[in-house]
Amino acid sequence: MQLSLNLSPMLVDGKIIIMGPSDIVSSEIGAELVRLLGNWVKLRKLGRVFESSGGFILPNSDLRVADVSFVAADRLKQSKRKGILPNSFPT
């Protein structure tokens, strides 16, 4: 039997940092923040809201993972990946 933990690796200053899963209270707070922020942002077409399983590669090549994150619509248009936001999901 293999134990699977939901670990989140981040790359900080060239070092891999492993973050363990949060407790149930923190998870509930994060979920509520995603819901509230997502509702606010979508209604106003301000951009996109992401939860904690998505990571962001920063200009210095660090990979960071936030509990909740927002990216403004004009920043999404700069994406170098094809077939992802902003046109992938209806608003």
Task: Provide a descriptive summary of the structure in words.
The chain is an alpha+beta fold and 91 residues long. The protein has a single domain (8-76), classed as tt1808, chain A (Alpha-Beta Complex), CATH 3.90.1570. It has 2 helices and 6 strands; from the N terminus they run E-E-H-E-E-E-E-H. The strands form 3 sheets. The protein has a two-stranded antiparallel sheet. Strand 4 and strand 5 form a beta hairpin. The relative contact order is 0.17. The model is unreliable at 86-91 (pLDDT under 50).
Give a quick summary of the entry.
The chain is α+β, with helices and mostly antiparallel strands and 91 residues long.
Class from helix and strand fractions: alpha+beta
The CATH architecture: Alpha-Beta Complex
Kindly report how far apart the N and C termini lie. 43 Å
Spatially, the strands of the biggest sheet line up as 1-2
Order of helices and strands: EEHEEEEH
At the fourth level of CATH, the homologous superfamily is tt1808, chain A
Kindly identify the CATH topology: tt1808, chain A
Q: For the report, how would you describe the main beta sheet?
A: 2 strands, antiparallel
Estimate the helix proportion, in percent: 25-40%
Give the averaged pLDDT, no decimals.
79
Strand content: 25-35%
What's the structural domain tally?
A: 1
User: Given the structure, what is the number of helices?
Assistant: 2
Shape: flat
Radius of gyration: 15 Å
CATH class call: Alpha Beta
For the secondary structure, the number of strands is: 6
